[in-house]
Amino acid sequence: MKSFKSMAYPYIIWSIFLIVLPMLLIVIYAFTKEGNSVINIQFTLENFARFFSDKVFFNVLKRSFFIAVATTIICILLGYPLAYVTARMKPKSQIVMVFMVTIPTWINMLVRTYAWRGILDKSGILNSLLGLFGIGPVQFLETGFAVILGMVYNFLPFMVLQIYNSLSKMDYSYIEAASDLGADRLHTFLRVTLPLSIPGVISGITLVFLPAVSSFFIPKLLGGGQYVLIGNVIENQFLTSGDWGFGSAISLIMAIIIIISMHITKKLDKDPSSEGGKL
After folding, report:
1. Is residue 210 part of a domain?
2. Does a structural domain hold residue 81?
């Protein structure tokens, strides 16, 4: 047992240096401001007051949530049918489908997002195809459509895999029982399959919504300077403006929002097996 505990020590040390200490620094920068010297650091709430009093930043936060929610909903609508069809296939076919879904994730996300710039550009592939029908050129880049498309493309595999894992582990005796009791396919899906797959849906929502709401390079590449999200504001405060205190305050606000979101999703993620067999 001691040997297994000792194996966790490198991970604990790694977590302290890469997670705990950076978060501690963010908290310190968020609640302090520089004085005349390093020792004379003063406590302040000005950074938080600035964020909530300025409508510009609050509107950026609302826009970020809208994009993240839209991305999550689209990923569910696209991912659930794909995961459902995959889970109903033969084992060898399932392996092929999972392989096809995960292939894009083998390529760096930044490279994949850059590829969409070439597709959505006015002289890109999509506008070239529309030109064959006498349409265009259409402005796709630097729009909300491009940002949502880029996020859905990058985060969809996480939704599909989570739902697929729930559906593939489902006890199909429930479906057989529902069929024996006279339930048709629609009622079987709504009363048995869907409730049993909810844990996978909740996990997928967590893996899509949380990175989407804080993403900065996808809106930067596909939205340009015309479409700024909260992640871009944080990046700008640290790298361009040099206002680490304000950037840390926004980061801390986002961390609290993410923790609350994770708590809510955990509350929703209940074991539905006791309800799955009720018709």
Report:
1. yes
2. yes
Q: Which amino acid is at 89?
A: M
**Could you give the C-alpha distances from 47 to 31, 251, 260, in angstroms and in order?**
7, 11, 21
Whether the full predicted model's pTM is greater than 0.85, yes or no, is: no
- Asked whether the CA dihedral 37, 38, 39, 44 is positive or negative, the reply is positive
Would you say residue 147 lies in a domain?
yes
Question: What gap in Å lies between CA 205 and CA 151, rounded to an integer?
Answer: 13
What would the pLDDT profile of 158-189 be if each residue is shown by its tens digit?
A: 999 999 999 988 887 888 788 777 778 888 88
* Residue 243 within a domain: yes
- Name the nearest CA neighbour of 266 among 202, 194, 213, 196: 202
**For the chain, what's the residue count?**
279
Domain of residue 84, CATH code: 1.10.3720.10
Q: pLDDT for 248-266, tens place per residue?
A: 999 998 888 888 888 887 7
